[in-house]
Specification:
Oligomer: single chain
Shape: rod-shaped
Largest sheet: none
Strand content: under 5%
Structural class: mainly alpha
Number of strands: 0
Number of domains: 1
Number of helices: 1
Order of helices and strands: H
Length: about 45
């Protein structure tokens, strides 16, 4: 049982960090996507 707890503790932290970084990258990619879409549609720009 102690071996399973050690494995879970070792794996949980990298998974948490990966999800956090993916979330941060996703928000930045959405901003980049929005900027590119607005550049490709010159009619909608002010």
């Amino acid at each position: 049982m102690d071996q399973w707890i050690a494995i879970i503790q070792e794996v949980t932290f990298p998974i948490f960090i990966s999800f956090y970084l993916l979330y941060r990258i996703e928000t930045k990619l959405e901003a980049i996507h929005t900027a590119l879409v607005s550049l490709s549609n010159p009619v909608e720009r002010n």
